[in-house]
Write a structure and sequence with these properties.
Layout (H helix, E strand, L loop, with lengths): L1 E8 L5 H14 L3 E9 L11 H14 L3 E4 L5 H11 L2 E3 L1 H12 L3 H15 L3 H4 L19 H36 L3 E7 L5 H9 L16 E7 L3 E7 L9 H6 L1 H8 L3 E7 L5 H14 L7 E6 L1 H4 L4 E4 L5 E5 L8 H23 L5
């Protein structure tokens, strides 16, 4: 599908990285990018987000390149999206809708598909007016007299009913996950979750640690569904390792809510391995974005080790670094080359021993 990209520079210092990331999202969704229009704005235009001059230029590019869709790298209001579509005479997909589309493309498990559908319906419900502008009210006639019901109201009611059903199904899946977690807790199984920015190499690291076959690729959101495996680590015994969905800046709020069941694996972990792309120039900003999402879902107080991955591309040597308290803070590895993994396993084992000692001390505190 041919796509024209409109990317808006709002004066952010990381605009180039933001734009490059959006192009990767577009390519991940299967778009063939025919042209990119760069727009500089101090603030969004209320009607079209971009100004009249750039809107005219966008129209000329549409006429010249004949794209199937226009991809907009910002979140648009329903009115802005509707106005752009009227002027450009093309379907306009904003950043939120593009991410939702990729999630729909990549979700494999029953739970993942339910979560994506729920997020899509929640996003769609705010944009129903543009779908039904050609309908005002149902026509009268036998059995249809009276005030009737507008097509828009009917559609909202149908979406509301579907959302309710999806939430009930997801609640059932959450209960099943909760049961599995309680079973692990009763068995005193140490739980580790891999988290990190999308495309940081989490799934490759997961496969290297667990010898699993989780899908891994050099693309954003290569995997969406949480994968869990049991492994044996010397000094820690049997532990559970989970690979979770990758994070991204400005993750749509509907997705944070819809994927809460998946991210609960993170919330209930004993240790987080925060995987960082050591070769990325934006790695510090990406760490901050992940930290923000972890705080949003209530996982910010869980013990955490930064795992700098892809050291083969960054020119680093495998090593383990400790903070001023002597606690392991950073581990440098290459999941692809399988280097530094012994140090990571030792770090996990040390964390498991500390957690075990803390639990023992809490259980043995005598009441006064």
């Amino acid at each position: 599908m041919k796509a024209l990209i409109i990317t808006v520079d709002m004066g952010e210092p990381d605009y180039e990285a933001h734009s490059e990331e959006f192009h990767m999202l577009a390519e991940g969704a299967g778009a063939e990018i025919v042209e990119t229009l760069r727009v500089k704005r101090g603030k969004p235009d209320a009607a079209h987000f971009i100004g009249s001059g750039k809107l005219e230029e966008a129209g000329q590019l549409v006429a010249a390149t004949d794209p199937d869709v226009v991809l907009f790298d910002q979140a648009l209001s329903p009115a802005q999206q509707r106005n752009l579509e009227r002027v450009l005479n093309r379907r306009v997909v904003d950043r939120v809708a593009l991410i939702l589309d990729i999630f729909a493309l990549r979700a494999k498990s029953h739970e993942g598909k339910l979560q994506v559908e729920l997020a899509q319906l929640q996003h769609l419900s705010t944009r129903l007016t543009r779908l039904w502008t050609h309908l005002e009210r149902q026509q009268g006639g036998i059995g249809m007299r009276g005030p009737g019901e507008s097509q828009l109201e009917m559609d909202r009611r149908m979406i509301g009913a579907k959302v309710k059903v999806l939430r009930e199904r997801l609640a059932k899946v959450q209960r099943q996950r909760s049961t599995q977690r309680r079973s692990r807790a009763r068995g005193a199984t140490f739980s580790v979750s891999l988290v990190g920015y999308t495309n940081a190499g989490k799934s490759t690291l997961f496969n290297a640690l667990t010898r699993a076959g989780a899908y891994a690729a050099d693309q954003l959101f290569a995997t969406l569904d949480t994968t869990t495996r049991r492994i044996w680590i010397e000094g820690a015994g049997q532990i559970v390792v989970s690979d979770t969905v990758g994070f991204i800046r400005d993750l749509p709020p509907t997705l944070i809510a819809a994927f809460r069941a998946t991210l609960e694996e993170t919330v209930h972990a004993d240790l987080l391995l925060h995987v960082v792309d050591a070769a990325s120039p934006q790695r510090d900003e990406q760490v901050m974005e992940v930290d923000k999402v972890l705080e949003d879902i209530g996982a910010h107080e869980i013990p955490r080790i930064l795992v700098y991955n892809k050291i083969d591309a960054a020119g680093y040597e495998p090593r383990v670094e400790r903070d001023e308290h002597g606690t392991i803070a950073r581990v440098f590895v290459s999941a692809l080359q399988r280097t530094g993994l012994d140090g990571l396993r030792a770090a996990v084992a040390e964390s498991a021993q500390i957690a075990g000692n803390n639990a023992f001390n809490i259980e043995n505190i005598q009441p006064e």
